[in-house]
Design a protein that fits this description.
Helix content is about 50%, strand content about 15%. The protein has about 325 residues and is α/β, with parallel strands linked by helices. It has a single domain, classed as D-Maltodextrin-Binding Protein, domain 2 (3-Layer(aba) Sandwich), CATH 3.40.190.170. Helix 6 links the parallel strand 6 and strand 7. Helix 2 runs antiparallel to helix 10. The radius of gyration is 24 Å and the shape is globular. The site of (2S)-2-hydroxybutanedioic acid has 10 residues, from loops.
Length: about 325
């Protein structure tokens, strides 16, 4: 009888300890940060820097897990995963938000920004900052903009004049503006996930694509494209986003520290992106697998003129005021 009592007591104590153990050593908050590019790109580096600084400063309370190269979720699925709470942070290209915010399509307009410095000025303006909050109704909160760089055109034939693109199949990101841009050239746009681009180019499913030097190099696209035109005709930048409910539910001090870290990382990414792209352009040239075509000012003007009708087409969706704010960002740098 006594023995049985002891056994029950021990059991009860054991259970109580077992139940309270996780509460005593609080599990760290896990932030899964998923993205589609390689580690050796501006965004890839940014995600790693964020992970490292969080580990150093908040290691016992927050753990950041980085999943590069579509290893957890690729395009198409990652936004859904964020909304379902399966990941907590993403940094999609600004071309991938048109389901959630028509205004963000602004960044896809061809030849809108003169250079990344102008993009930076716009992103810091009230209009740019406003777009970070334009998806709150969908439960998405923009935390920061990260730069990648200017887009270049690549193909399996030389593209010097807009008519050279006629009839070619181009991979585009999931963006209606970019689709329209290639239609203006009488080319055939095809929306495709980033992880499928290399194979698409290699097998001839598409003949060309547009991307930054760092994405072209890190995906080895230059090995399956004979020509790259240094067109600088648009941009690829990112919005670092989170699930609004998750972010607001964080302890105040943790959220504040994460925001401080993110601001530091953003400065670093944006400072390094230009150099990374310049470096990767050089590496592509050194590889010698594709010819880099420089445009004359006249040829570049022809591309601009050929693509420009897209502005009119999307002006109502995007908003003329936003387009004007972007043009002001160009002007204020002159
Ligand atoms: C692309 O799909 O080409 C880019 O958006 C990839 C990226 O995230 O830079």
């Amino acid at each position: 009888m006594f023995n049985r009592l002891v056994i029950r007591l021990v059991c009860a104590l054991g259970c109580a300890v077992a139940l309270s153990a996780p509460a005593l050593a609080a599990d760290p908050i896990v932030i899964k940060f998923s993205h589609v590019v390689a580690d050796n790109t501006p965004k890839g580096q940014g995600a790693r820097m964020f992970q490292k600084l969080v580990e150093e400063r908040l290691g016992d309370r927050v753990k950041v897990e980085v999943y590069p190269s579509s290893s957890l979720y690729g395009d198409g699925k990652e936004m859904e995963a964020l909304l379902l709470g399966d990941v907590q942070m993403l940094a999609p290209s600004l071309a991938k938000f048109d389901k959630y915010s028509k205004g963000i399509q602004l960044f896809d307009l061809p030849f809108l920004f003169d250079n990344i410095a102008a993009v930076d000025r716009f992103q810091h303006s009230a209009a740019g900052q406003g777009l970070l909050e334009s998806m709150q109704d969908n439960g998405i909160l923009g935390l920061a903009y990260w730069h990648n760089g200017m887009k270049q055109l690549s193909a399996n034939k030389p593209l010097r004049e807009p008519r050279d693109a006629r009839g070619l199949k181009f991979r585009v990101q999931a963006s209606n503006v970019l689709e329209a841009q290639f239609k203006e050239l009488n080319a055939v746009p095809r929306k495709m996930s980033f992880s499928e681009v290399y194979q698409g180019l290699q097998t001839g499913v598409v003949n060309g694509q547009e991307n930054t030097w760092s994405n072209i190099y890190s995906q080895k696209m230059h090995e399956v494209q004979d020509y790259i035109t240094a067109s600088d005709h648009g941009i690829i930048d990112y919005m670092v986003i989170t699930n609004a409910k998750f972010w607001r539910g964080l302890p105040d001090d943790v959220r504040t520290q994460l925001e401080t870290i993110l601001a530091e990382v953003t400065d670093q990414v944006n400072e390094q992106a230009r150099a990374m792209n310049a470096h990767d352009r050089q590496r592509i040239a050194d590889a010698g697998t594709s010819e880099i075509i420089e445009l004359t000012p006249e040829q570049r003007a022809d591309w601009r003129e050929a693509m420009r009708p897209v502005w009119q087409q999307f002006e109502d969706e995007i908003g003329a005021d936003l387009i004007e704010a972007a043009e002001q960002a160009n002007a204020s740098g002159q």
